[in-house]
Amino acid sequence: MEKWLETARRYDADDQLSKYRDEFYIGENLYYMDGNSLGLMSRRAEASVLDVMDDWKTLGIDGWTEGERPWFYMSERIGELMAGLIGADPVSVLATNSTTVNIHQTVRTLYQPTEDRYKILVDELNFPSDIYAVQAVLDDYGHGDGLLKAKSRDGHNLETEDIIALMDESVALILLPAVLYRSGQILDMERLTRAAHEKGIIIGFDLCHSIGAIPHELKDWGVDFAVWCTYKHLNGGPGSVAGLYVHPKHHHKQVSLRGWFGNNKESQFDMDHTFDPAADISQYQIGTPHILSMAPLLGALEIFNEAGIADVREKSLKLTGFMLEMLDAEFEKYGFEIVTPRPADARGGHVLIGHENAAGINAALKSRGVIPDFRAPSFVRIAPVALYNSFEDVYHALKILKEIMDDGTYKKFGNRRGVVA
Q1: 99 annotated ligand binder
Q2: CA quadruple 168, 171, 173, 178: dihedral positive or negative?
Q3: 129 marked as binding residue
Q4: Which residues bind pyridoxal 5'-phosphate per the record (predicted)?
């Protein structure tokens, strides 16, 4: 294993993003490999929270319009900070609600079913919350049987051709993940969008596992809408306010779920009972924005815009590539299944490995200071994050994995997941 340590140190010596590692609270003797579930706190995120708290303390209600970061415009301001990460105009991006609420909002607004065209195309590997929301919309429209699922050939990944084959005249809308939350596969968003539009279908993507890990060009690709959380790769903190993109061509459509913060800001405080929608994506807001849950993003996103998503992606691929090389060379005898696609253009920011004792392995790793996560039924996700993980982190994480397999430590933990996996 020593040769891998030498390689890791050589990579770290050439790492242009290593200067950002000290910006994060990592903890001693800890190899944090769960940034695709919850990113670590940065000092800038902490500072921006304290700044907003100070505005509350010193300005009181005037914090809505005064100070360096007026709360009244914070959703739009954070949208501007995220726009470059997804390739969109700032007026089309917003921080608002949660991911699930944003799915309800966008799907309910853009879904226009007819007697013959009413199905919504999803995939069988997507995160459950997305499916719950889509099914609820279909049920409310009286089309409960309209959920169409693209199947996986291997139980882990999806084939673009299989999804396109389902795009017929009965499909009104499509919602797919940009990166599959288990396998880490990147879908071909550009090709899927082009194919959907050729059939007159609205298409959107869940970017929860892609934003902050890979570049996007949503406007150029013509994507109709996208939703995402901000607490994974974006490091916005637990429950931080979600993100939303809607293509400008849809801004004229009035939203389905209406609330006073979606009103035109110039007339919002007229308190008229007739909804006067904002002219841009701002109308997708509903209630009063969660200021303290947005505050960390002001600092966290500053780091991304400074580092550049292209460099983040380059290092991320090197980190996961280094991990895959080690797994191939040193772990064949342990019965691991490497699920994540190998090609760089098909691999997101994490690696999924399968094992019949995955829950026990996950628990054993955590007992030794390696923090991955478990995904049912029998998988461990390992996510080295470009902004704060080093190549030596990856080396030590896999060295410890090898040790717990060799000495059988994982058997002491049983094979049942915790309440929060």
Answers
A1: yes
A2: negative
A3: yes
A4: 99-100, 127-130, 206, 209, 231, 260, 288
Quote the CA–CA distance of 199 and 201 in Å, as a whole number. 6
* CA 338/CA 64 separation, integer angstroms: 50
Q: pLDDT, tens digit, for every residue of 74-92?
A: 999 999 999 999 999 999 9
Residue 58 assigned ligand-binding role: no
Say if residue 251 carries a ligand binding annotation. no
Distance, CA of 103 to CA of 227 (rounded, Å): 7
Neighbours of 221 (CB within 10 A): 19
Q: Domain 2-32+308-413: give its CATH code.
A: 3.90.1150.10
Q: For 83, phi and psi rounded to 5 degrees? A: -60, -40
Q: Is 206 annotated as a binding residue?
A: yes
Q: Give the pLDDT confidence of 35-69 residue by residue, as tens digits.
A: 999 999 999 999 999 999 999 999 999 999 998 99
* Phi–psi pair at 133, nearest 5 degrees: -65, -45
Question: Per CATH, which fold does 47-306 belong to?
Answer: Aspartate Aminotransferase; domain 2 (3.40.640)
Q: What is the mean pLDDT of residues 179-205?
A: 98
- pTM as predicted: 0.96
pLDDT in tens, 404-416: 999 999 999 887 7
271 Cβ neighbours under 8 A, 6+ residues apart? none
> pLDDT band at 156, cuts 50/70/90?
very high
260 is in an annotated binding site: yes
Closest CA to 376 of 182, 151, 186: 182
User: 228: annotated binding-site residue?
Assistant: no
Domain ranges (residues) in the chain: 2-32+308-413, 47-306
Cα dist from 100 to 3, 79, 127, 172, 185, whole Å? 45, 18, 11, 20, 21
* Residues 6+ positions from 218 with CB-CB distance below 8 Å: 86, 87, 88, 189, 205, 226, 245, 247
Q: Which amino acid is at 327?
A: L
Report CA-CA distances (Å) from 147 to 118, 120, 130, 184, 280. Answer: 9, 5, 12, 24, 30
In this predicted structure, the answer to whether residue 417 has a pLDDT above a threshold of 80 is no
